## 1
Amino acid sequence: MTRLFTLLLIFVTPIVAMAQGSVCSEQTIRDAVQNHTMKSADDSFFWSGAFDKPLIGKAEHEEAAKKAEVDAPRKNQVGAQHPQRIVVSKSGEMAYEYGTGELSFDDQKTGKHVAFQTGYLRVWKSVDGQCKVAATMMRPIESTMKSN
């Protein structure tokens, strides 16, 4: 009887774990991007054209964003991102996504309206049962920069 229970435990546990489903899925990621509900991991990596160096950790990113709001204030900021490809690991623990986007805003210091397209690469990972952003690299596409 003990052997039967042990065998059952050995074979059923992996099946139950697989039945719970993937944390990161293509649809989960598409929904988070479209609805602007992406959450970052505490140790996330972020680098964009707005900062001169990569920001490591959610706290550093939040601090740099607050500083940027003071140093280069913006009004009427509108942005969108369009995933072109999302690849999820078989386990659903990690994924990557790349795509393009647009960003526009009014620069309060110069009074000019700025608009451009972006290209990005983002890595996702499972953290505490949620699919969170582990790394983002985003750059403006220089040939699309408009300022008037």
## 2
Amino acid sequence: MRIALGASLGLAAFLGLTFAALADTVTTLPALPPKDVSWSFDGPFGHYDRAALQRGFQVYKEVCSACHSLNRVAFHTLDEPGGPGFTEAQAKAIAAGYKIPDEPNDQNKGQLYDSSGNRVTRAGTIADYFPPPFPNEPAARAANNGALPPDLSIIEKARAGGASYVFSILTGFGQTPPAGFTVLANKYYNPYFDGRNISMPPPLTDGSVTFSDGTKATVEQEAQDVVTFLAWAGEPKMEERKRLGFGVIAFLLVFSGLLYLSYRKIWHDKH
């Protein structure tokens, strides 16, 4: 009787401690505010750093494009004014390095799939848009433990905090979770992500890429450059827009001055 009673009390105590421990465990927390970062493209006088745009494109191409699409960006924008500053020949070479699903034509005789069932492709041209890394959403989710990597074309426009938020996410991995916080299976801790459990593994490491201009490829440098590139991807005409805005403001100031002087001259002797 005493043995049974003791065993029952021991089991109750164990279950009580277990439930108490579970009650103290959390799997979601509010995100920290984005890091305070200064960007060359911020403000009315902001502009894109051409070297950073080219390095950022390299980071996207060699790292991010394995999972994330850039569906709204065409290859021809790479050599247009206000862009990364590639030449037309460079833009054509970049486009040709991508495989684009082919449409029915005389060369493929209307056959969209080869003998193995794979989609027939062709080399890209500057008229094409960046192709997605996966053929469809189910394939993207299957390759990423059920998560769907977002398109990055306007990611900085679509997220509160913009460029600083994306930079914070990219550089926010590797931190120790607070006591009582549980990182879920197939998730990673990132304090700048809402809930702090994020499906994306740390995408950047020191030396993820080797920059052609010799810049040291630290995580922060890679993140800063790819964020600059994504800012341009989301607003490729920003510099033109700001120049136009200043021109309009200058015109309105001059026009207002002329109106005032005309008013003074016309009404000078009328009072």
## 3
Amino acid sequence: MLTNILPACNLPEATATPLLSAKHVSNILCVTIGTLAKWRVYGNGPKFIRVNRRIAYHPKDIADWLNARRVSSTSEGGA
């Protein structure tokens, strides 16, 4: 939840969508936290939000990243 990522943050309701931690996203995508870190370095992974030293992900960015990798056969790129 957002309170776990930014405990002292008071965001307006329009932007108060709960953010996901790197640990939560690693569980969703079945990859290690280290893999997420490498993806951030190389720009291969989903968009992320950095607040000071904390990393968070917006659920829509995870869904968009997954949808961009959707294919119909193994001959398509990205498989």
